[in-house]
Amino acid sequence: MPELPEVETIRLGLSRLIVKKKIAETRNYDSPKSFPNSQNDTQAFLIGATVTNVRRRAKMLLIDISSRYTLMVHLKMTGQLVYVGVGPSSRFGGGHPTDSLIDNLPDRSTRQLIRFDDGSQLYFNDQRKFGWMKLVPTVEVPNTDFMLRVGPEPLEGSFTGEILFDRLQRRKKTSIKAAILDQSVLAGVGNIYADEALWMAKINPQTLVKDVPKKSILKLASSIKEVMELSLSKGGSTDRNYIDAEGKKGSYLQFANVFRREGQPCGRCGTIIEKTRVAGRGTHICPSCQSIDK
DNA sequence: CACTTGACCTGTCCGC
DNA sequence: TGCGGACAGGTCAAGT
Predict the structure, then answer these.
(1) What are the C-alpha distances in Å from A285 to residues A211, A276, A292?
(2) How far is the CA of A86 from the C1' of C7 (A)?
(3) Is residue A238 classed exposed, middle or buried when 0-12, 13-18 and 19+ CB atoms within 10 A define those classes?
(4) For residue A280, which nucleotide's C1' is closest to its Cα?
(5) pTM of the complete model
């Protein structure tokens, strides 16, 4: 589910909600993948420890705790990290609609629960069970396969179009969409923002990287920044079941130009948006704005 | 190495 | 109403 803006929105919420809280208990529900307390010995590094920091790299959340361990969390397609405070109304921040998605936790998608010593709780829910959590010594985090391979953060000030162009040189014979979805090329881009940024830069997603003019790659880099910054300001995208740490949906898709807008007119030229398949993913394009470069 | 495809899961929607 | 198939925000391990 979540791409960079969604994971960053969750991180911002968790930074406010769980830092300095002490872990009192963890509980496993249906956890087929790697979860920290599916092994008793790792639980010893969680219970009694305090959350010290919540970081993000690409689509990975990093929850540092005082035992010098870090909980690495990947939400994959349908994972959620939801904080539930103490008391019947506090969990909804007061007047919350009765159809709240976090009204009745745990539910059948709940995989893991972390309870803090003040009674508040953090739920890991994941309908499709692709997501996972792993406990790693904090000093080892930079040496994990994930950290060693992941590409630059597009919202860091140091990221430029020249850097994107350089990193694309090893993926010259694949489509530009497949290339920017590759997390070792660039961190954090997923299916929504790939389509949105390619529309903004007027690049057809199936164009081979070697056929995209350098000028267009430079434009693409700034388009990626632009769509992700806008999405961040809207709390991310809720396509199906994304919610942030407080159970709130994101509203970016109201502002999307092509994603899930097949059959509607392009906001730039009026041509009807089409949906196709590129790199094995549903792909939305304006057939006139995004002609194929050769 | 670079590239593509299927697998991992559950749930929902659409056509018959 | 039921049933089969396609599809869904992401990676991986295989295959070529």
Answers:
(1) 18, 8, 11
(2) 38
(3) buried
(4) B5
(5) 0.95
Cis peptide, bond prior to residue A213, ω within 30 of zero: no
Q: Are A4 and A59 in contact (CB under 8 A)?
A: yes
Residues 6 or more apart from A204 whose CB is under 8 A from it? A176, A198, A285, A290, A291, A292, A293
pLDDT in tens, A114-171: 999 999 999 999 999 999 999 999 999 999 999 999 999 999 999 999 999 999 999 9
Confidence class of residue A93 from pLDDT cuts 50, 70 and 90?
A: very low
Strand-pairing partners, residue A208, are: A175
Encode pLDDT of A13-56 as tens digits: 999 999 999 999 999 887 666 676 555 567 789 999 999 999 99
HSE of A277, CA atoms in CB hemisphere, 13 A: 2
Residue A280 CA, nucleotide B7 C1', distance (Å): 13
Higher per-residue confidence, A33 vs A222 = A222
Nucleotides of B under 7 A from a protein CB: 1-6, 8-11
In whole angstroms, how large is the CA radius of gyration of chain A? 20
User: Looking at A50-64, A98-112, A274-288, which range is the least confident one?
Assistant: A98-112
Please name which of A151, A157, A195 lies closest in space to residue A177, comparing C-alpha atoms. Answer: A195
How many residues comprise chain A? 294
In this structure, the strands spanning A51-57 and A23-28 are unpaired
Q: How far is C-alpha A234 from the geometric centre of its chain's CA atoms?
A: 14
Question: Which phi and psi angles does A38 have, rounded to 5°?
Answer: -75, -10
